């Protein structure tokens, strides 16, 4: 595996999202000091790194919660400046965070449309929402849910994750970012969620999978982006890498004793910061 410029596969689809030299400071703390990312339609890109490497900050910048202080973001080949989450959603960027943001006292349909309910006049269009929710779940081959009108409180961890992911693709999404989707799941539920992640990519979406689990990463990811202390250590094709090489990049920022270079650009890091989020 090399840490040279990321080589796209032959006849690869154009990137949905590109981040080039992204930087984010919080006062004197340099949380992101030159990060790069390519997410392609029909592919799962794993975003990995140790605690404090900058994964959470990076996805929040992409989602418009923070915004990058410097660097370039391209969405479907066009430069963009994402200033808030609503703008990111309108572009087709959806994020499923670890807490899932589901309401236990609401059913699956109302959770999927939470905050973006369909209306008929001044009333909720329950029939349209139910039909659309059922359509999306069916398109993702979700068969573990007994009824789309059951309350989320009655669902297992894997089923709750499925509902959160289905909500993310409900809105004509182009890029879905999943933050540790299997962290709290058992073996069987993890396998169900990973199959769902793969189906998202097979349906043509670009998927970014944030994970610490190398088994999950190597099972579903087409590419792996490694962050180390707020920088991109490498972005590689999964088939061209090994677990040991990726783990070495995560823990030291280099592989085979060679210093890691930013994978997609030649940005020069700023002065060292500490504790990137």
UniProtKB/TrEMBL annotation:
User: Could you list the residue ranges that cross the membrane?
Assistant: none
Which InterPro entries does the record match to this protein?
AAA+_ATPase (IPR003593), ABC_carbohydrate_import_ATPase (IPR050107), ABC_transporter-like_ATP-bd (IPR003439), P-loop_NTPase (IPR027417)
| Annotated spans, Disordered | 256-277
Q: Which SMART domains match?
A: AAA
List the Gene Ontology MF annotations in alphabetical order: ATP binding; ATP hydrolysis activity
Question: Is this entry keyworded Cell membrane?
Answer: no
Q: Which domain of life is it from?
A: Bacteria
Q: Where is the composition biased (Polar residues)?
A: 265-277
Show where the ABC transporter domain sits: 17-254
- Which keywords belong to this entry? ATP-binding, Nucleotide-binding
Q: Name one Pfam family in it.
A: ABC_tran
Family annotation (PANTHER family): CARBOHYDRATE TRANSPORT ATP-BINDING PROTEIN MG119-RELATED (PTHR43790), SUGAR ABC TRANSPORTER ATP-BINDING PROTEIN (PTHR43790:SF8)
Give the protein name, as stated in the record. Answer: Sugar ABC transporter ATP-binding protein
Q: Which organism is it from?
A: Cellulomonas rhizosphaerae
């Amino acid at each position: 595996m090399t840490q040279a410029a990321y080589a796209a596969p032959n006849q690869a689809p154009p990137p949905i999202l590109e981040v080039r030299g992204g930087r984010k400071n919080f006062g004197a703390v340099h949380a992101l000091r030159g990060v790069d990312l390519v997410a392609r339609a029909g592919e799962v890109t794993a975003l990995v790194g140790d605690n404090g490497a900058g994964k959470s900050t990076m996805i929040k910048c992409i989602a418009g919660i923070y915004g990058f202080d410097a660097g370039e973001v391209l969405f479907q080949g066009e430069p963009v400046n994402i200033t808030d989450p609503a703008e990111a959603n309108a572009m087709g960027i959806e994020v499923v965070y670890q807490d899932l943001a589901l309401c236990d006292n609401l059913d699956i349909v109302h959770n999927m449309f939470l905050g973006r309910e369909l209306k008929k006049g001044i009333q909720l269009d329950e029939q349209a929402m139910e039909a659309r929710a059922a359509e999306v779940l069916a398109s993702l081959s979700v068969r573990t849910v007994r009824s789309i009108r059951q309350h989320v409180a009655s669902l297992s961890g894997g089923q709750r994750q499925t509902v959160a992911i289905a909500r993310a693709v409900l809105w004509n999404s182009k890029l879905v970012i999943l933050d540790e989707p299997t962290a709290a799941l058992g073996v069987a539920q993890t396998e169900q969620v990973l199959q769902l992640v793969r189906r998202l990519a097979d349906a043509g979406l670009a998927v970014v999978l944030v994970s610490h689990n190398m088994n999950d990463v190597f099972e579903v990811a087409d590419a792996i982006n490694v962050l180390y202390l707020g920088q991109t250590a490498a972005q590689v094709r999964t088939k061209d890498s090994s677990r040991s090489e990726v783990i070495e990049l995560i823990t030291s920022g280099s592989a085979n004793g060679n210093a890691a270079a930013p994978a997609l650009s030649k940005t020069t890091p700023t002065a060292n910061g500490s504790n990137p989020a």
